[in-house]
Amino acid sequence: MICDTIDNLKNYFAESAAWQKAIAFIDNLPEQPELGRVDIDGDDVFAVIDRYNTKSVEGAKIETHTKYADIQLLLEGEELIGWQPKDENLMVLDEYSEENDIAFYEPTEFISSKLRSGLACVYLPGEYHMPQLNAFDESKEVCKVVVKIKASLL
Predict the structure, then answer these.
(1) pLDDT digits (tens, 9 = 90+) for 34-80
(2) CA 12, 15, 20, 21 torsion: positive or negative?
(3) Which domains does the chain have, with CATH numbers?
(4) Taking the complete model, does pTM exceed 0.90, yes or no?
(5) 3-state helix, strand, coil in the chain (%, to 5)
(6) Interstrand relation of 111-116 and 68-76 (parallel, antiparallel or unpaired)
(7) 3-class DSSP state of 126
């Protein structure tokens, strides 16, 4: 897991052409991008732009991926992202989906990081994370970009 400023992202995986394409996309995002999937380099590098309301930790699931790394950043609002160390004993809530590259687990002990405009969190395959959590006592609307990079290209 990496949490840093968006400006510093270029310093990670500097030799990866796929990573550099992702950073160029982030650097050129318009203030009000269209929601949905944006192909940056086909299925190797793409982004999903979404607007949603954050949720309470009660009932939230922790997730992990196998094929893709995530770069998560907010264009509007704030949210917490929970994460916890790898734990093979976590209770599986939803088995791994090859199509969606995701599995869900019951969180046990986790630490939260606050994500806001100007910051980004990177989750590599196998790193447990729980996004979309309330940063405040109540749900707030956010606009989020998740850039997916095929891990084999990093």
Answers:
(1) 999 999 999 999 999 999 999 999 989 999 999 999 999 999 999 99
(2) negative
(3) 2-153 (2.60.120.370)
(4) yes
(5) 15, 50, 35
(6) unpaired
(7) coil
